[in-house]
Amino acid sequence: MKLISGVLRLAATDLSNHLACRHLTILELDVARGRRSAPDWAAPDAVVLRELGERHEAKYLELLSAQGVAMVDLRNIGDDRRALDETR
Q1: What would the DSSP string read from start to end of 33-47?
Q2: At 79, is the secondary structure helix, strand, or coil?
């Protein structure tokens, strides 16, 4: 969940989190709006899942690249609007 130029942007994870815990949505909305800071602590199992997911994604991108699939990496653009335009 991000607030960009006054527009709230949601991800699939935000929907999943909301279905699991509506209070979490309120807390994350407060973080997005700058009313509170995000917690410094992350659940250890979530950290492991994130690391495994990132490794899986990296291997899959290597496979696609080896097959000659053309890709554009939008992670380092830094400007969400430009990344959106590139995606379109």
Answers
A1: TTSSPPPS---HHHH
A2: coil
